[in-house]
Amino acid sequence: MNAQPIHFKPSEGFRERAKAVVDNPFLRQSFRGAMDFLMTKRAGQFPDPEELESLRTLGEQIRQYNLGKLPELLVRLEENLTRNGIQVHWAETPEEANAIILGICQKVGAKLMVKGKSMVSEEIELNHAAEAAGIGALESDMGEYIVQLAGEKPSHIIMPAIHKTKEEIATLFHEKVPGVDYTDNVDALIQIGRKVLREKFLEADIGLSGVNFAIAETGTLCLVENEGNGRMCTTTPPIHVAITGIEKIVEQLAHVPPLLSLLTRSATGQNISTYFNMISSPRKPGEKDGPEEVHLVLLDNGRSQAYADEQLRKTLQCIRCGACMNHCPVYTRIGGHAYGTTYPGPIGKIISPHMLGLEATSTMATASSLCGACGEVCPVKIPIPELLMRLREESFSAPHENPGMRGQGAGYNGLVSFIWRAWATVYRSPALYRLATWAGSRLSWLLPSSQGPWTTVRTPLKPAPKRLRDMLKERA
User: Fold this and answer.
1) Is the pTM of this model over 0.85?
2) Of the residues 103, 108, 403, 415, which has the fewest C-beta atoms closer than 10 A?
């Protein structure tokens, strides 16, 4: 496995990575087919538009209600988890989160950590931090296991290896898993992965998982999954460490069923997931299974920045279903790796700036057609196009003295700003507008054939030789 960190790439490389995928017809066809399949499955789960809209409204209200009480609920969650015997840790940055988790590992002399699916652990690049500390970190979700073998990041938050063909996976298993012969039989490949992972569950000192919902009133961690690896990670090793963002909290158990229904139906087109785990404590006296210790790491990593702004706070409503990606005309053509961040697609464009700063993500908000498909399918009604427009404003407006976002004004260009101000001035004045169109129609030959990004995919802008005003005057 690749032990080198896969660092988040700056937005400057987005255009080149996207072009590489667009120029690959096989990848484009694969993504298009996969996204069409997922969209069809989701549509089949919501045949009644009124029921869908009602459920989406309820999901939005639940998320906004809980985010409105977030500080209070976090305190209450910690109190109830601690009372139940679960140890709670707070991390402001990825570095702090890694230090906490590796500290737990080193305290017990752990050599191997087996991981259930967790996008937050991808966010902090835990695997590489663990390997640097001499601790093995093995993904047990099949898709995550495949991309880990390939030394890659997930290209989708629900289906990490959606960009891989069965032939590529067969070659990967043959080359990376000792004693495995080449086979592109899907069932055989699944059994190979399962056999390797089952042995590791028994050897692991630490089991790590994500959290889909943390219930404040009961001190319960909920985990949604389909493969059973999450249940193995949280019960077989002697120590279970869960990690989640601070926004994944709900006040009451009653808030979970509507969100679960929206999550599974929006993500994979299932009525319900195969497994729904509820973890409230470590193993109690007399119980035959379960971990001896349970830890929860609550990560901020820019979420407080989003929370502080009433409009940007809506970003934190996300339940990580991936529906916005499946319906995005940009994502379906370029896939997840082009974005260079843990969270790709529409949700990545609005949450990554808070995690990485606008310096590294200033152009991501512009990688959108603003068609509105992401907002229309979001199960909790996050107004993604509206937030993208806000982030564009934050990124490309002149830097402020006291910016609300890290890196505000990172994309500001004085020349571009001057051009747009001049454009606005011309359009506000009828006399200047007439003069400008007169000059443009007669001096169009002065315009260069290369006009920056515009002419990379379009013909040069060239005013018509006659204005509409002139042609109407000639007719009269």
Assistant:
1) yes
2) 415
